[in-house]
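[retry 2/3] RING-type E3 ubiquitin transferase: previous attempt timed out, resubmitting with same input.
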Amino acid sequence: MYWWRRDPPQADEEEEGDTCTICLEQWTNAGDHRLSALRCGHLFGFKCISKWLKGQTRKCPQCNKKAKHSDIVVLYARTLKALDTSEHERMKSSLLQEQMLRKEAELETAQCRLRLQVLTEECTKLHNRVQDLQKLILQHRDQLLRCPRGSQADLLSGLPSSQSQRKYCFQKTFTVSQTGNCRIMTYCDALSCLVVSQPSPQATFLPGFGVKMFSTANMKSSQYIPMHSKQIRGLAFSSQAKGLLLSASLDNTVKLTSLETNTVVQTYNAGRAVWSCCWCLDENNYIYAGLVNGSVLVYDLRNTSCYVQELVPQKARCPLVSLSYIPRAASAVFPYGGVLAGSLGNASFWELKVGSSHRPHVLPIEAGGCIDFQTESSTRHCLVTYRPDKNHNTLRSVLMEMSYKLDDAGEPLCSCHPVQTFLGGRTCKLLTKSAIFQNPEKNGSILVCTGDEASYSALLWDASSGSLLQGLPTDQPVLDICPFEVNHSSYVATLTEKMVQIYKWE
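[retry 2/3] RING-type E3 ubiquitin transferase: success.
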């Protein structure tokens, strides 16, 4: 008896997945026509494929691959149908592409919104400036019309410039330490007090170093608070916790002191001398400590045992004389946040990424001779001070503007470029700290104040024009400068080894 093969039904038949391709009858779950398969994967009724392989042609009826009776495998399924998923895969691919385009559009929208905010703020400032100039023109228009033509130039030269005729006037002197060795100071706005580092006034009974508080509300000195066993090199107040003072010392420790209770609340042992410190203004629980070897230790206030990260310098390892944090801001010039670490040899900007990771950027400044680094966060400027060397015979303070560009991977490459230079005297033996701050006139400009050992004074400069506004005389070389505000009045304090002098903007 011979079996003959019929062509399999077309793909559009409704019951293609339920019938045997030999007899075109439906297979069953039991009996002699139950569902079976060959090794090639094609499906048949057991009776049909069994008889087919017992004949002369021992091949699969569909693909003609060699087969034998022992290759038959019984399957247990009611029906079997193949689903066409090509359309589903096309839709899935289109969805992923659409999601990617949407993310790109959202990112571009956010960037445009940020640029719009920056441009709007700039337009508002320019609009206010134009209004001020219009008022100034109206005030002096009548005078100009009445004056002879030849005298109009003299009148114009007498008009007020962007810097008003006001200046800092001497107010008061505080004697901090009779023996000297004061080093640094900072201001607490929440407590309205100036804090100055000094050696213990009772060194025989209570050796070491601490701080003395001076009330700026009534201009009176307050108590001494012991803190460290060696000289204090860095002081910074928290912007979140009232009266919480961070201090760094050459005794290898970083401490947190509450000035509300006058007690040290936390001590971190860095294992090496600490030259500087600052708070993270983007993550309230982080603090930074600059070490004698150039490294920066990152501490988390929630971890009271040790530091959580060490930022190792990429270049020469010199003491970190200053740490300043630049917060993130909606600025087209420089929107990134991070800590500016300035050593005696170079400077780096450690960009704070998502979480607690930091990315280093070596800043292009002159190598060697650096004694101080300060920042002004709102304008994204930093001030670098150099001592005299063989190429420059005077003290120099260079105003730098932070900037960036994107690399091929879209990551920022942070840098800075000089915009103004302020020259001082020919002497610089001390690591004097300078100051860069907003003009008390609230006109958007900034002032620079630098110590000058040669003249025993602090020099006040207009940052935009580079002109010297005035000198603030002192009895000894200036070690630190601190601007502050009390009851809507602006002040500048200068610190020498023994005294603090207060000047008021009038």
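[retry 2/3] RING-type E3 ubiquitin transferase: Confidence is low (pLDDT under 50) at residues 1-14, 144-163.
[retry 2/3] clearing retry counter.
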